[in-house]
Amino acid sequence: MKKIELLAPVGDFECLKASIQNGADAIYLGTSSFSARAGEKNFNLDSLEEVINYAKLRNVSVHLALNTLIKNSEFAEALTIAKFAYEAGVDAIIVQDYGLCSFLLEHLPDLPIHASTQMSIHNLEGVKELESLGFSRVVLARELSINEIEFISNNTNIELETFIHGALCMSYSGQCLMSSMIGARSGNRGRCAQSCRLPYELIDKNNNCLDKGYLLSPKDLCGLDFIPNLIDIGVTSLKIEGRLKSPEYVAIVTSIYRKYIDLAYSNSKYEVDENDIKKLMQVFNRGGFSNGHLSADANTELVFKDKPNNMGIYIGNVSKYNATKGYITLNLNDKIALR
Fold first, then answer.
1. CATH for 181
2. What's the number of domains the chain is made of?
3. 208-212, 273-277, 283-287, 323-327: lowest mean pLDDT where?
4. Do 49 and 31 form a contact (C-beta atoms < 8 A)?
5. Whether residue 59 has pLDDT greater than 90
6. How far apart are CA 116 and CA 94, in angstroms?
7. What is the C-alpha radius of gyration for the chain, rounded to an integer number of angstroms?
8. What pTM value is reported for the model?
9. Rounded to whole angstroms, what are the CA distances from 20 to 17, 51, 330?
10. Could you report the per-residue pLDDT of 233-254, keeping only the tens digit for each?
11. How far is Cα 287 from Cα 213, in angstroms, rounded to an integer?
């Protein structure tokens, strides 16, 4: 039986090396156009060919994200990128726009096309429709529980990819219009303004404030506990979110998920070490982690309202402050080290 794939995010060449050196089976990345993670990070066509060659020499697959909605005037450019990647040897293209999907399936029939999570495929009917059209893989919506994923897996032959670690959206995958309505920046065009990470107030009909803070900001997903189950139900690939994250983030998260995937296939007892959770939290966390929507039980810990970005970890208390010299005395609860 083929092992489940560990799919790591790559935003630049340093992240590429970090992912491969720490055990990724496959990587996914975007170009400077038509990527759902538009920004300074991403690759031009010349560097894309270099990335594909670098990965293939190390037996690592490359998935290219062309997963934004495409305007009519942009179609030719999107096809140029897809054709270039195809000729350079890319292993798959991740697509949201149905028009682009249809064209690629017809004209590049031997190129695997993956349905982006931006397509919001959240039930068996959607998966079977894409399977009938010729897609080779569906990146399932992040809102599915493991029971729903198992039902889909048992009733279809298409490859299934699920997110296992990283940022969650408040909305259904691919269906958020908050950014475009509030900030005129569409997530489906790769320019989400992170509206869910802003502070809000919850008020009643009499304008009384019931709560305030970052009320729509979800904690990041950590799915280590679910790896054995996802393997057992036949999921093809476990995806780490984070194409805008640092090489350090990519290295640590990839190495830890590599460790636990290998552990799940061994004869050893599967148990998650709290020290590994601490490493994950140290590299990035928003008030800790949650299991997202993977559990069949309602997630009452989905949101952390106090802070929308990286918290680091708690290491101790300041017990004294010298205002003259600017010195502090810190009582440590954990070890620290200079790097």
1. 3.20.20.380
2. 1
3. 323-327
4. no
5. yes
6. 5
7. 21
8. 0.93
9. 5, 11, 38
10. 999 999 999 999 999 999 999 9
11. 13
